[in-house]
Amino acid sequence: MTAHPASPDKTQAAGPARWARAMSDPAAFAAEQEQLGHVWTFLGLASEIPAVNDWFTTVLGGRSIFVQRFESGLRAYENRCAHRFYPLRIGRTGHGPVVCGFHHWRYNAEGRALGIPKCIEMYGRTPRDIDARLREVELAQCGDLVFGRFPGRQHCALAEWLGPGHAILARLGEGLGKPDRFACEVAANWKLMMGISLDDYHVVAVHPGSFGKAGYIPPETIHYTRFNAHSAYLPGSPPGTLQAIAEACRAGNYVPERYRIFQFFPGLIVALIKALDYAGDTYWFVLIQHLEPLAPGRTRTTTRFAPLPFGRPAGPVRKAFRAFTMPWMRLGVRIQSTRIHAEDHRACEQLQLRASQADAMPILSRQETRVGWFEESYARILDGHFEPDGVIESVSGLDG
Ligand code: FES
Ligand SMILES: [Fe+2]
């Protein structure tokens, strides 16, 4: 497998290459997002909207959408009124029935405008006759994680799209409780941010005080697995590890023993990190990073993180000790993660400054293999191939 992205386009002297075009051209970005809005995309956590009429907003396919809990369950709609396109939801999260703030049209759980003030007087018709509807987003859950897509182009179930990642995400998303979170906007394209998380070659230059302190990652540590449009870095592990993790997650007995990171196309990054071995316990955390593309050169990133269950049972004394220690572990993870993210964001913002000059294919190293895989999946989906290819392949440093 080549580490170079296979794009059907040749290098364009006049502008960015195809893989980079949507990073600087607003029309290309809009077309890219329109297409990507039809693939299963992470939207948020169901546990963050526990009560009927709780909602959150996010973006899908370049459009603002909202996800809301109704009596009948979760539904999601494009966040604009059918009347005059006023935003139905303003802000990131909130609570209340779907009533537009401009003229008070009221929508039911099916997205139909059934409460229209002075309807007969204003329109000479009933709301049923007008039959105004919101554009619906199709939803599916993987444990607590909510995914959505605009219907019509991709037909596979979410479990098929995620492949072995489905069992892993379902298990890791269990029992997050109230995860800690940090979020910010970055002046860089979402693909640059995804790309840096798929790149293990930059650690020395960009993270000299942490990941890169010990130098470059030794080749024998490398193990990448690709599954459908997604991939994972499973350092120091034999082929088949992804499937073994999925199996253990399905059986409910997965305990991490090394750093792991999984990237789900298009914009979800899930990492397992060890905070500390302390007093006979290992403190493991799961980090869930969500990239929301806002503009060619602007991305919102939200990271939620929470401790994973301990691998060994505890009596009352140990439980009390863990409860005392945990806030410090959380603080440590927050400080370390925000620092590493900030270093990555600075690098992505520099890359963004030259995005319009990316007029050739990148020269990818072995430790950027997954950037190449990602670009292949990206090109495939932009070409209209929405269904998962079912490919599972692994590369390790020892393969030469
Ligand atoms: S724009 Fe929503 S009710 Fe008029
Ligand atoms: Fe990094």
Question: How are the SSEs ordered, and which strands pair?
Answer:
Layout: H1 18-21, H2 26-36, E1 41-45, E2 54-60, E3 63-70, E4 73-78, E5 93-95, E6 98-99, E7 106-107, E8 113-115, H3 119-123, H4 127-130, E9 136-142, E10 145-149, H5 158-162, H6 165-172, E11 180-186, H7 190-197, H8 203-206, E12 223-227, E13 230-233, H9 241-251, E14 260-264, E15 268-278, E16 281-295, E17 298-307, H10 316-353, H11 369-382, E18 392-396
Antiparallel strand pairs: 1-10, 2-3, 2-5, 3-4, 4-9, 6-7, 7-8, 9-10, 11-17, 12-13, 12-18, 13-14, 14-15, 15-16, 16-17
Residues 196, 202, 206-207, 344 line the site of fe (ii) ion.
How does this model look, in words?
The chain is α+β, with helices and mostly antiparallel strands and 400 residues long. The chain contains 11 helices and 18 strands. Strands 11-17-16-15-14-13-12-18 form an 8-stranded antiparallel sheet, sandwiched between helices. It has a 7-stranded antiparallel sheet with strand order 1-10-9-4-3-2-5. Helix 6 (165-172) packs across helix 9 (241-251) and helix 7 packs across helix 10 (316-353). The radius of gyration is 22 Å and the shape is globular. The protein starts with 17 loop residues before the first helix and ends with a strand. Bound molecules: FE2/S2 (inorganic) cluster (FES) and fe (ii) ion. FE2/S2 (inorganic) cluster (FES) binds next to loops.
- Approximate shape: globular
- CATH-assigned homologous superfamily of the largest domain: Naphthalene 1,2-dioxygenase Alpha Subunit, Chain A, domain 1
Strand content: 25-35%
Small-molecule binders here are: FE2/S2 (inorganic) cluster, fe (ii) ion
Relative helix content: 25-40%
- Low-confidence runs (pLDDT<50, min 5 residues)? 1-12
Q: Report Rg.
A: 22 Å
Question: Average pLDDT value?
Answer: 93
* The level-1 CATH class of the largest domain: Alpha Beta
**How many DSSP helices?**
11
Largest sheet: 8 strands, antiparallel
> What is the number of strand segments?
18
Structural class by SSE content: alpha+beta
Distance between the termini: 12 Å
- The CATH architecture classification of the largest domain is Alpha-Beta Complex
Strand order of the largest sheet: 11-17-16-15-14-13-12-18
